[in-house]
Amino acid sequence: MERVNPLAQAVYSVVLTRRDVRSQFTGEPIDPQVLGRILQGAHSAPSVGMSQPWDFILVDDVGQRETFRDHVLSERQIFLESLDPTRRETFLGIRIEGILESSLGIVVTYDPSRGSPAVLGRHAIADAGLYSVCLAIENLWLCAQAESIGVGWVSFYREEFLAELVGLPAGVRPVAWLCIGPVSHFEATPDLERLNWQSRRPILPHVARGRYGEHDGLFDIVTLPQ
Q1: For the range 60-63, what are the long-range contacts, defined as Cβ-Cβ under 8 Å and sequence gap of 24 or more?
Q2: Cα–Cα distance for residue pair 178/162, rounded to 1 Å
Q3: What is the total count of domains within the chain?
Q4: Which end of the chain is more exposed for a tag (fewer CB within 10 A), N or C?
């Protein structure tokens, strides 16, 4: 096997061990210096036209978090009722949030007016700014993993509810509520795979050359270093 340089080794290790955390939060506070590094790493993400269209709202108020948790659980019930009996049974064993158990909630937002009126590179793809926010979230997640801090992305909510909860101005969208904090451990296998909701797909069928579906003989299976 080809030797991987230490920096690449470290990057692959962080990528492959990153988990969407639900049940492992300890509730201990995050060291302010660590949190500052994680947020700076998120803020260093690339963005269309260097617009940096994100904001990070730190939510530590217990009442505010309880209000959001109750909303999320009501949305979970709506989703549960939409499932067929077999999937419903599987879903009942899956936890979707760690809102109160985590040390902090971080709401990541998207402001499409940031950098206006001429956002370089967004004229043909309106969602390029939204993609930029997702890059900031991924940066945050990987920086947190490197610091042994867990992150869980909660997506069972209505945007208008969360926008009102954290006082967003008109036009600014909440993209994610991230539960973040120290954890007891990281699971070796992602929860949705471990709990039989979905299996990870191999990469080869999803790599094409030139045109969609043209993937025969591109390369051999490679195992990333951990």
Answers
A1: 60/103, 60/104, 60/105, 62/100
A2: 12
A3: 1
A4: N
Containing domain of residue 128, as a range?
A: 18-188
* pTM of the predicted protein model: 0.93
In a domain, 211, yes or no: no
pLDDT of residue 222: 64
Rg (CA), the chain: 19
Would you say the C-alpha torsion 11, 15, 17, 18 has a positive or negative sign?
A: positive
Helices (H), the chain: 6-17, 32-43, 62-81, 85-92, 128-146, 159-165, 191-194
Q: Are 142 and 72 in contact (CB under 8 A)?
A: no
Task: Assess whether pLDDT exceeds 60 at residue 30.
Answer: yes
Cβ neighbours of residue 224 under 8 Å, at least 6 residues apart? 12, 15, 16
Please report whether residue 202 resides in a domain: no
Residue 114: give its domain's CATH number: 3.40.109.10
Sheet containing strand 104-110, edge to edge, reads: 54-59, 104-110, 173-182, 149-154
pLDDT 10s digits, 130-177? 999 999 999 999 999 999 999 999 999 999 999 999 999 999 999 999
Q: Which residues contact 171 (CB under 8 A, 6 or more apart)?
A: 111, 112, 113
**Per-residue pLDDT tens digits for 42-98:** 999 999 999 999 999 999 999 999 999 999 999 999 999 999 999 999 999 999 999
**Structural domain includes residue 29:** yes
Task: Specify the pLDDT at position 29.
Answer: 97
